[in-house]
Amino acid sequence: MSKARVAIVTGAGNGIGRASAIEFASRGMKVVVGDIDEAGGRETVGMIAEQQGEAISTYMDVSDEQSVKDAVKLALDHFGGLDIMYANAAIELQKYIMDIEVHEWDKVMNVNLKGVFLCSKYALKHFMQQRSGVILITASPHALCTYEEISAYAASKGGVVAFNRALALEAAPYQVRVNCIMPGAIDTPMVQREIAASSDPKKLRETLERMHPIGRMGRPEEVAKAAAFLASDDASFITGASLAVDGGILAKL
Ligand SMILES: NC(=O)c1ccc[n+]([C@@H]2O[C@H](COP(=O)([O-])OP(=O)(O)OC[C@H]3O[C@@H](n4cnc5c(N)ncnc54)[C@H](O)[C@@H]3O)[C@@H](O)[C@H]2O)c1
């Protein structure tokens, strides 16, 4: 029997990260569930255990270098390896540019962009030695087109997509693949918070649904299945790509 692969999923205490951790575990991977929300992380591990999967949760702040190094070390010490780094965690900031404070801008960049850099760097260090590995990144359609009041998030995701390409080039000689996913609006706590904070939550939900040519928002599990595909050997010739999992939103003018 081949050795089980080991994955770190960041932001796996909820939403897309949680669904991905569960999907990975259901395919026999051992998963390190990394999140600043420790209770959420433990809950994800519990859900995986219920399905006879194997996972461990850890406090992991992707914007903190030591915290990222510790998570990689945990994967190596606890599960004896690391094969997949899914840099998924990010935060949103809904504000007009004129109202964004510098510390708020910095926080978004630190989590969304520096976090992806740190997770990639410390996973790649290990992957270069073993001459295999997969890095996945959750980007967003906001990298390519956007609307008002979300500039910091959009800029961070644009950075992530550019970084995805550069990282893919540097990783390829070591047989390490790097890809990002662009999810449409996915019904997770991130979007649920956005809907709840709006002046007309019902209207915003309907607008978000209609925005997608497919006529609805996505489910976290639908992104998780794309991530599992990109992590698998079925995607062995795919690197440097951005895969839209967006109900057609990016196809629309
Ligand atoms: N939900 C969507 O519609 C949507 C669309 C496009 C892209 N995305 C992207 O998908 C990813 C996941 O989003 P989601 O909707 O599941 O969000 P979510 O808010 O539901 O979950 C994000 C998780 O990340 C964790 N997190 C926040 N800061 C962290 C940090 N510094 N270190 C580690 N963990 C941290 C949170 O505690 C939370 O558990 C993000 O990169 C987001 O930008 C989401």
Brief write-up:
The chain has 253 residues and is an alpha/beta fold. Helix content is 48%, strand content 15%. The longest helix is centred in the middle third of the chain and has 29 residues, at 102-130.
Q: Can you offer a commentary on this structure?
A:
Helix content is 48%, strand content 15%. By secondary structure, the chain is α/β, with parallel strands linked by helices. The protein has one domain (6-184, 220-246): Rossmann fold. Strands 3-2-1-4-5-6-7 form a 7-stranded parallel beta sheet, sandwiched between helices. Helix 1 runs parallel beside helix 2. It starts with 5 loop residues before the first strand and ends in an 8-residue tail after the last strand. The mean pLDDT is 98. The structure holds nicotinamide-adenine-dinucleotide (NAD).
Distance between the ends: 49 Å
Order of helices and strands: EHEHEHEHEHEHHHE
Q: What is the number of strand segments?
A: 7
Q: How large, in whole angstroms, is the Cα Rg?
A: 17 Å
Estimate what percentage of residues fall within beta strands.
15-25%
Bound molecules: nicotinamide-adenine-dinucleotide
GO molecular function: glucose 1-dehydrogenase [NAD(P)+] activity
InterPro entries: NAD(P)-bd_dom_sf, Sc_DH/Rdtase_CS, SDR_fam
EC number: 1.1.1.47
Protein name: Glucose 1-dehydrogenase
